[in-house]
Amino acid sequence: MRRGVPLAIVFIVGTLLLLNYFVANDTLKATSTNLVNWGVIVSAFAVGLASVNLVRIHINKISRQRPGWINSVALVATMAIFISVGIYTKLNPDNAGAKALFQNLFDHSYSPFGSAMFAILAFYVASASYRAFRMRSLEASLLLIAAVLVMLGNAPIGELVWDKFPVISNWLLRVINMTGQRGIAIGVAIGGFATSMRILLGFDRGHLGQGE
Amino acid sequence: MWQKLQNIDRRIIYTLLLIVLFVPMAKPLGIPLSVNETTQTVFDTIEALDPQSDTVLFVLDYSVGGQADVHPQAVAVAKHLGRRGIKTVMVGFVTDGPMFAEQIIAELGDRFTYGETVINLGYMSGGETAVKSFVEDPKNSFENDHRGNRVANTPIMSGIETIKDFSYIIDFQTGAPGYQDFLRQLPAGFPYAAGIVTVCVPNVIPYYNSGQLHGLLQGLRGAAEYEVVLGEPGEGAARMDAQSMGHVVIIAFIVVGNLAYFMTKRSVKKSA
User: Fold this and answer.
1) Are A10 and A202 a contacting pair, CB within 8 Å?
2) Inter-chain touch B126–A185, beta carbons under 8 Å
3) N or C: which end of chain B has fewer CB within 10 A?
4) Considering only A52-66, A105-119, B44-58, which range has the smallest mean pLDDT?
5) How far apart are CA B265 and CA B260, in angstroms?
6) A51 neighbourhood in chain B, CB within 8 Å
7) ipTM
């Protein structure tokens, strides 16, 4: 029963949505639209559930003073500030001050911190390019030469040095790369279709948990 | 010496890169830039729209992590739409989307009239399911916009019944949901363009070549190119010099690293 009901729901919902794609029928379309809307609502609840779970885990970590608990304090405090200001703003849409505060929190704290985290990657790439990008084999050499050519084609300074760099870079991207990418995309699509059918027919039950 | 060079302290690498990135930002070099065909397609499509009858769906599906690459693209395209008076409906399928929409509207407030030529519908959760839901019924997907106004009461949404009432969709994205989700859910052949982060370009190019994408902005360079073709240099163009110099330094690191590697290998062979 615990397994049978979710599997039946998956089969019925999946089949209806698939049928709607191939068959033009008003009742089927209306049912499909309702199911998709339910999906949106369920996913919104999932975001809320994930937040509650996150808070529970980190409060537990703080109360037991596990290693790194101070980071958990920062996370819980930040969440509390954002959630309270956000909810207050939604409940009082005419309050310009609250709106400005919420936008400022985003613009001047979350946004620069997020960008900084991403920007750090540039330094890792620079360090990796020095230490790891070695011409140890023919394949590695080809990869390295292609990467350098694409970089020179993408950077305006490369174009300034030799106007053929963008042409070569474009050719690498739009001919050599594309053939490989198309092969991968077709492979992924076939794999995705096979997995979807396995889930729909109940052969693949990983989504039910416990790794079954 | 080569051995030493191979094991150079990473702090030296970081400092060199920092200097090289900082100098052009403080004092731009003004390196000329050519405009890629993928960018020109987006510009030409928007240029051909009619402000009286056309509405653009402006999707902000990027997060703060990728904003350095994608946000300048969104600003440049919004400048163009605002300048031409094209009605622009903004929506986000990632949580940060509506916040970036507010940033853009605040920056370009003089080019848009809220509710008449621009609206920020807000965020819709659910990934591809949300995209499907919106594509099926854009009119009723949002009751209130991000600012709490009734969507049905806004003049800009009065002409929107189905997804086909949008003349063009441009989606700025850093991951999922993104171009694949839209291409799967939109009617075949729908005019849809994407603004993406540079690292995604190799994955997305096949969709442009096949004609499924009606325009593609490729990372920060895409933003800079759009600013050039628009004739309004901004954040994208200003940062391109730094990116150029960053690329040069990385290429120099690759060359020196390989030189040190081969010379060390040679000296080890010789001593053996």
Assistant:
1) yes
2) no
3) C
4) A105-119
5) 8
6) none
7) 0.83
